[in-house]
């Protein structure tokens, strides 16, 4: 993918936002079709020096030739900004990512399935309690145990949150490890484990396709309404 190809992506996003049906695209009321300015080579170098790792190539190209964030899938692509001299990603849930661990490999596997099954099997049911206050105490303790397993920080080392889908569902971009450059779904709020986004042929979705697949669908919606 050439620099010119990426520059055309920015033009297409701006055109879709200006089209009659731009406001009908899901999430447009959130990102308002704003695309932030691209990073300079110097800013990107400073960002990578701070986090201690080179970002995936497709994402690097996006930051340099399209923008630092803004209009994109769902409620938009989380922008990366320098705040008080430090770089960080901003958005609903962006702080779930530990920027100090981005150079560490993202885990190849999730938690032990047997451990998850064991915790789920012990989930209390309200009908088993005569007193609702007793149930509340027990379910609160269970929730704490479940979150300790599912939301352990080491499970998302080497990745950043890049988009919010609503209802606390998010998507991550893997920065380091064997899954580098791929997009992962995070529906843990609904007790569904982290999982890679996959194409119909079972191959993992990478950043460029993730973004341009959204753009193609957005263009169809934005341009189809007179």
From TrEMBL:
This is Knr4/Smi1-like domain-containing protein. Transmembrane segments: none annotated. Residues 38-217 form the Knr4/Smi1-like domain. SUPFAM superfamilies: SMI1/KNR4-like (SSF160631). InterPro entries: Knr4/Smi1-like_dom, Knr4/Smi1-like_sf. SMART domains: SMI1_KNR4. Pfam families: SMI1_KNR4.
């Amino acid at each position: 993918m050439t620099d010119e190809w990426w520059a055309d992506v920015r033009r297409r996003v701006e055109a879709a936002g200006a089209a009659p049906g731009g406001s009908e695209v899901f999430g447009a009321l959130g990102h308002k079709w704003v695309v932030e300015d691209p990073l300079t080579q110097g800013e990107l170098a400073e960002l990578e020096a701070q986090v201690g790792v080179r970002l995936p190539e497709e994402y690097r190209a996006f930051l340099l030739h399209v923008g630092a964030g803004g209009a994109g899938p769902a409620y938009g692509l989380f922008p990366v900004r320098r705040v008080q001299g430090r770089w960080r990603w901003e958005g609903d849930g962006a702080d779930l990512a530990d920027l100090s661990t981005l150079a560490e490999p993202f885990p190849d596997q999730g938690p032990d399935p047997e451990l998850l099954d064991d915790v789920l099997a012990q989930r209390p049911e309200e009908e088993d309690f005569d007193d609702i206050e007793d149930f509340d105490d027990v379910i609160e303790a269970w929730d704490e145990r479940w979150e300790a397993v599912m939301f352990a920080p080491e499970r998302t080392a080497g990745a950043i949150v890049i988009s919010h889908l609503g209802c606390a569902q998010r998507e991550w971009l893997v920065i380091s490890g064997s899954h580098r450059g791929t997009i992962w779904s995070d529906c843990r709020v609904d007790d569904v484990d982290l999982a890679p986004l996959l194409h119909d042929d079972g191959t993992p979705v990478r950043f460029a396709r993730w973004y341009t697949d959204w753009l193609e669908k957005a263009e169809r919606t934005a341009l189809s309404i007179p």
